[in-house]
Write a structure and sequence with these properties.
This is RING finger and CHY zinc finger domain-containing protein 1. By secondary structure, this protein is of the alpha+beta class. The protein has 4 helices and 15 strands. It folds into 3 domains: 91 residues, no CATH class; 80 residues, no CATH class; 57 residues, Rubrerythrin, domain 2.
Length: 275
């Protein structure tokens, strides 16, 4: 935070006012130039003042995502050896300050990932091999899952080996390097938070991969109990029994037929299927 000047610093003449106005105009011009330069970089993924030279095709792009969107191959950002300043167009090695005009390319800079962006409390994880959005003190690296997870999940989640080295079961984006928020359901199959919301919006509650319930459904099962208790079956269906498999506890039961659901006799859930 900038310090506030005391009363003695306030100008009391027109000349000083004029100088200060010019100084303010100069600062505004600098801000405008930075804004124009950022607009020129035309990157919708990051806020930066440089372009990266892709080693694969020797062309300059604002970022690897901008490259991949218009190419039939992917850009390896770790192989970038040359960048271009957006403000003065000077070509130079990987750094965070232009050697000619002194423009700072990004509030956050990672020389390993060649990542430039505005400050989001990012940090580089050596074990993940990439940068994560922090703050760092709120995350830890789970060696089994091979991913940085919230400390709230430490000892409180189901570990799945190399969990992030897979694709989202909904949108199929590779999860380990995804820029979107993740969610780890009870079964341990990682999924994008936005994709999870789309599942819930459709009234679904099962993991697309293993069919287990994504969350604790005990409150909802109580409601289903009430629905089932209110059902009045015709005489020819009152003695019908069905064999079911619970997709949460993976145990078999034989239960009475009910139009509102088939309840597992082992765990009391309704995430069941007839076998």
């Amino acid at each position: 935070m900038a310090e506030l000047g005391d009363v003695s610093d306030v100008p009391d003449t027109d000349s000083k006012m004029e100088v200060d106005e010019k100084a303010c105009e100069s600062k505004e011009d600098d801000c405008a130039e930075d804004h124009d330069a950022a607009e020129e970089s035309a990157c919708k993924h990051y806020n930066r003042l440089c372009k990266l030279k892709a080693a694969c095709c020797s062309k300059f792009y604002p970022c690897r995502f901008c490259h991949d969107e218009v190419s039939n191959h992917e850009m390896n950002r770790h192989m970038v050896q040359e960048i271009q300043c957006v403000k003065c167009e000077t070509l130079q090695g990987v750094c965070n300050k232009c050697e000619k005009c002194s423009a700072v390319f990004g509030e956050y800079f990672c020389p390993v990932c060649r990542l430039y962006d505005k400050n989001k409390d990012q940090f580089h994880c050596d074990k993940c091999g990439i940068c994560r959005v922090g703050p760092k003190e709120k995350f830890y690296h789970c060696d089994t899952c091979n991913a940085c997870l919230s400390k709230e999940l430490k000892g409180n989640h189901k570990c799945v080996e190399n969990m992030s080295q897979s694709s989202c079961p909904i949108c199929q984006e590779y999860l380990h390097t995804s820029r979107l928020g993740m969610h780890i359901p009870r079964c341990g199959h990682m999924i994008h938070q936005e994709c999870l919301r789309s599942i819930y919006a459709q009234g679904l509650y099962q993991c697309p991969l293993c069919r287990q319930s994504l969350e604790d459904m005990s409150d909802y099962w109580k409601i289903r109990d009430e629905y089932c208790a209110a059902v009045r079956l015709p005489p020819d269906l009152q003695n019908v029994r069905l064999k079911i498999l619970c997709q949460d506890c993976h145990k078999n039961s034989e239960v009475p037929f009910n139009t509102e659901g088939l309840k597992c006799l082992q765990c009391g859930g309704y995430n069941t299927t007839e076998v």
